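Deliverable D4.2, example record:
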Amino acid sequence: MRPTAFRCRTSCGRSTRTAGTASSASRRTPSARRFLAATDAAELYVSDYVDYRSRDGLFRKYRILFVDGEPWAFHLAISPHWMVHYYNSPMTEHQWMRDEEHAFLARIEDVFRGDLAGALREASRLLPLEYVGIDCAIDRDGKLLVFEADNALIVHELDDPVLFGYKHEYVTRIKAAIDAMVRRRIGSATPGIGRVEPA
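Output generated by the structure prediction step:
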């Protein structure tokens, strides 16, 4: 039987996720044994591993926030490793990576266009919250690959202002969109409340 790649974590999500090769019919492969030996979880969540590397061999993880259904870019992390977190990606080491992130933040529609723009609209429709975010990628077939959807994804201005100062203005845009959304909700519930008078 052909080996297949897998991702595995405890059902509560607290275990370290891993990837390796294992027979789809057996738990007796070395990588499966190592993972099972490292956890005492009663239940595991196992899913197929998706190789979403870009043409340059690197993995890209995008964080996008939806405010009242409108997508706003927060960050792009680029890494040689499939498990991408911003803090452990080499974004501090490469100016070209930061330039690519800056371009994404400035014009999300240049990256998520055509069918991908439609996929974002569909994701927003399926997540009917005033504020919600996704961590996602673009797979090798050019389709949207969603890792996580959450209304508590971190949006911050804690990055080094020298290296990542360009990010701060885009966080300000997200905050302004949230503020405007809250004011609209308050205003629609209570006439005259939440309206900003011109200076």
